[in-house]
Amino acid sequence: MEDMKQILLELIELQKVDIVILNLENEKQELETKIIENQEKIKNIKLEFENKKKKLDETRKKRNMLEMEIKSKEQDIKKKEEQTSMIKTNEAYKVLQEEIGAIKKDIQILEEKIIAIMEEEEEINKWLKEQEKIMKQEEEKINKIISDYKQEISEKNNLINQENVKREEMAKKVNKNWYERYERIRKNKGGIALVPIEMQGKGNAICGGCKMTVRAQAVIDVKKCKEIMACENCARIWYIEDNV
Ligand SMILES: [Zn+2]
Known about the structure:
By secondary structure, the protein is mainly alpha-helical. The protein has four helices and three strands; from the N terminus they run H-H-H-E-E-H-E.
């Protein structure tokens, strides 16, 4: 029978390395999230730019249509002016002139619309020009941030690899049965398989994992280290700080 205290000590040392790895993995995860957030930022900036460009295309199309409409109305005027020479009565002449006047008024309204659209186009063009510069700078800035994060991730990966090498060596030395049990609890309990019994004064003690009360006899047994004891509630293996 291997010394229980020795096994417990080895498991505690193993857990220290596992916690270092766990923290590194969490930090890596945070960096990866930040990269995604920054990539999202670039995407949104580009999307805004593309939407403005689309808007410019739309205004151009609208303007072309209005220009075509004016041309067609100018044709109408031309036809009516040609008819003028064939007109016999003053009455008919007056009607035709009124019709021509009405079309001219329509054309004027269309021209005003075109001017408004051109002003809008000018504004969009100005925005696009300015934004293109800003966008490039912003993209460069964000890409730099992303590459810094990637660098940090690669450093974390190196550390994780180093710790894993260390861990493997330690794991080999631990009693096989207890190692397997440790691994099982660790995977089920968010990375922490060993917890201290927390003394609360007046002989009261709680499990450092689930905070359930620990019986006095159990505290004594853990102190004696005759056998390794686990919490009945959360299954984590107990130890007493400064005792091991
Ligand atoms: Zn517990």
